[in-house]
Amino acid sequence: MSADPFENVKATILSAHESTTPGEKVNFYNSWAKDYDQHVAVLDYRAPTLAADSVLPHFSGSRKSAAVLDVACGTGLVAKQMKKRGFELFVGVDGSDAMLNEAKESGLYQDLKQCLLGEEPFPALWAGSFDVVMIVGALSVGQVPVAVVRDLCEAAKPGGLICMTTRSNSDNLRYKTALERELQQMEKEGLWSCVEITEVDGSVQQQSRPVCVDG
Ligand SMILES: C[S@@+](CC[C@H](N)C(=O)[O-])C[C@H]1O[C@@H](n2cnc3c(N)ncnc32)[C@H](O)[C@@H]1O
């Protein structure tokens, strides 16, 4: 163990990269949940802030009454940032019980569900329910499988907004390519349209809107 907190946190995160299946990764998050917020603050983890900021120029409705689905919500950092920007209604889903406990303690969510995405069915009752769907820090190798983006699209209302982040690190390039291919395929199928892609320090954020089929 190093005396440098930054090096210790980096070592913790690198050990997470060793877990290869979503189940293993979620076990890792179970053991990390209590320290997660403190550790990612040491690393200056900005994805929740950047993602929340990126939604604003594309969202024109009432923030107060907008239903936001926070997928792979973890301890609630994304909802915390969205709340600062005027959003109030949050539903969260995550595979890790311990991360969900932290999210519950934040008091930000109306509802929280445990679901190992990609291995358990996405809650069907959410179809067409959300004005904004966020997934931050979880679309990467060994975490949420690419196929789940179809569920995110289904969960959004027609004309709603979906904000996704992924990583461009070398260990994630194959995943990122597969993700981009799936997003383009869905656009060809008329399921959504891309409104913005932003590269941030090598990471990628994308916003898409489900296409409103009934006008
Ligand atoms: C890096 S954290 C991000 C949490 C939060 N979105 C944030 O930005 O702080 C990744 C989260 O994804 C969850 N996760 C990873 N793979 C998952 C899966 N297949 N199903 C559900 N949750 C998953 C983990 O439990 C963890 O809470």
UniProtKB/TrEMBL annotation:
CDD domains: AdoMet_MTases (cd02440). It comes from the Eukaryota. Residues 68-160 form the Methyltransferase domain. InterPro entries: Methyltransf_25, SAM-dependent_MTases_sf. PANTHER family: METHYLTRANSFERASE, METHYLTRANSFERASE-LIKE PROTEIN 27. This is Methyltransferase like 27. It comes from Oryzias sinensis (Chinese medaka). The lineage of its organism: Eukaryota, Metazoa, Chordata, Craniata, Vertebrata.
